[in-house]
Design goal:
alpha+beta; Ubiquitin Conjugating Enzyme; four-stranded antiparallel beta sheet; 7 helices; 42% helix; elongated; RWDD4; RWD domain-containing protein; UBQ-conjugating_enzyme/RWD; RWD_dom
Amino acid sequence: MAANEDQEMELEALRSIYEGDECFKELSPVSFQYRIGENGDPKAFLIEISWPETYPQTAPNISMNAFFNNTISLAIKQSILDKLMEEVEVNLGTAMTYTLFEYAKDNKELFMENQPVHIVTSVGNNISIGTHEIVPSSKKRDKKEQLSKTQKRKLADKTDHKGELPRGWNWVDVIKHLSKTGSKDDE
C-alpha cells in the first residue's frame, strides 16, 4: 500500500496511463521499472524508480542497476542519472514518475549517443558480446537522409503528428511577390 494520498493518486494514474504498455513494470506499489527503447535495441535501457515514504516532497530513488543495463558503460549510466536528477529538482513536490519516464524516452538518443553498440549473440547457453563499429541498421538510416527532390516535396506535403502542416508551408517569398505586384503598379 502506498504511504500517502499523493502516492496513491500517482499509483492509480501510472496504472491507467501504462495499462497494456509492455515497457512498464510495477515491481511494488512504490517501485516501478520502465524500458526505454524496443527489445533488441542495443541502445535500450531500463530505469527503476522507487518512492521513499516522504515522496513527492523528497526525491524518488532512481536506479539503473538492473541486469538489463549491464552492457551500458558506467559513465553513460551516471550521465543519465544526473540528467534525471535535474528533472527531479525541477519537479520536487509534484508527482513526477511519469514525467521522468517520458523525459528519458524523449531524450533516449541524446543519452545514448556515446554508448558503443554491442551485438549480443547466444549459442546454446553461451552468450558472447562483440563491439562492432558499423551496424547494418545505421546504413539504412544514412540512405533515408538522402532524399530526392520529389521525395522532399512529398514529405513537405505531409502533416505532422497533430495533423497540421509544417510551419511555413504557406509562406510567400516577399521579394518575388513584391516584384510581381510592383511591376503591375508601374504600368
